[in-house]
Amino acid sequence: MSAGRSEGSKLKVCFVVDDELESIVKNVVNRLGVQFKAKGEKVNLVNIIKRSELKNPKEIENKKVIWIVTGNSFDNKVGNSGNDMYILIIDRALDIDLIKKFLTHDVVGVFRRERLEGEGLEYEELGKFEKLLKDLLRETDENIIVEEDTMYEMIRAKDIENWKFVVKREEIAEKYEDIKYISVFLDPSMREFSKKLKTIIADFKKSYETMTKFVRDKKYRNTPRMESHEKLQDISKKFIEFFSKNRYFKVPSLLLEGETGTGKSLIAEIIAREVLGEHHFKEEYYRQSLVNVEKQLIDSILFGTEKGAFTDSVTKLGRITVSCPGILFLDEITEVPPDVQAKLLTYMDDSVVHPVGYTGAEKIYAPTHIIAATNKDLKKEIQEGSFRADLYYRFKYRLTIPPLRERVEDIRFLINFVLLNPNVNPFDKEEGYKIKKISLNAIKKLEKRKYAGNFREFEDVLRNAVQQALYEGLNIILERHVQ
Description:
Layout: E1 12-17, H1 22-38, E2 47-50, E3 63-70, H2 71-75, E4 85-90, H3 96-101, E5 107-112, H4 123-140, E6 144-147, E7 150-153, E8 157-159, H5 169-179, H6 183-186, H7 191-215, H8 218-222, H9 229-245, E9 254-257, H10 264-284, E10 285-289, H11 295-303, E11 304-305, E12 316-317, H12 319-323, E13 327-331, H13 338-350, E14 352-353, E15 364-365, E16 369-374, H14 378-383, H15 389-394, E17 397-400, H16 411-419, E18 427-428, E19 432-433, E20 437-439, H17 440-448, H18 454-471, E21 476-477
Parallel strand pairs: 1-2, 1-3, 3-4, 4-5, 9-16, 9-17, 10-13, 13-16, 20-21
Antiparallel strand pairs: 6-7, 8-20, 11-12, 14-15, 18-19
Helix pairs in contact: 7-10
């Protein structure tokens, strides 16, 4: 809370509406009142004055007036104190004369009347009108209260426990790590992305279950990892039989593109958890980062080695083989050298691995679901000759994860989700989360920021804001805490 504000430091607010629009405005404002109360927001509903009852201009002197008027009414003289705002409700196309008034009047919205009421009602248009009034009420709410001759400003804020989720706070805090990956399915602007993701998950799951149903026996279920060449040869024989009976079967694969911090590894984990299930996820999902790995070692890391392949070499299974028939996540696939790219392309066609130094006549089948990721522009890499075009197009699915700066509408959702993370916002079983609210001004500052580091940076900014607020002994994040 901040003290010392003078009573005249913020204008009081009122709506002045044309008589014929009063019912439309009142209906919306009443609904908003219910919403604000349900969310625990202390937003005062402003006075609504019918224009016909505005007899004395002094009634709106020293007030911020939001005029909600018809096009004809706006065409006539309306007040313009410099602080006023205007919402036009028109019955026809917007005349050029009205548009000219936009230069001298602060017009914040234009709506078609027929779409706000009656038989022509459009819920999308009504929703936009309602959102505009909601934002204006939050913006212009005076929020000045006086207690014992001391004036305070009520901080307009969101209560994180009443914001989006209705899950019990204890359950969120305890299970956050297990459910954090579902955020992509809840994220408003990621709906199309999540639809594609669900299709991929379904395809991967069908492939995985088809293969495991054919090759698994009790012995294999109890020791799922291929920890020896004996186990490899045993399983490979079963896959030879499988592919002979399923000649057109292809193991699906996925290429994830996106800037650093957009959540590529999280997407890979989502897929793996859903496809493999929690038990097999721990045993059949491998993540192999190729960053800072010597180029000459990548072949053996992926495909394995045979004893004697080079000086002091020992027989070792590669990541592809060990992951079979689960999922291998290759982080930063552009680090794979061209000769190994060719080898990987062949493998993705026939599911046959060729360990370094292997001279055996028998093919080794080890079908694994490959998910690869990169933060580079692959089409540029292809043009420069550092990445094979045929390998790029060999992936059955390709997904690009948009950067956070292109998803401004998601910020409020993500704020809520991150502040429910007990690793960011400390949680106490008796008191709940230490930070309980975030001011709307802080939210706006977060929305304006450009996140070069994407979600990681966003999470770090909120974590620092939480620490700053707690250091000051507050349970609310204010604008000054967002650095």
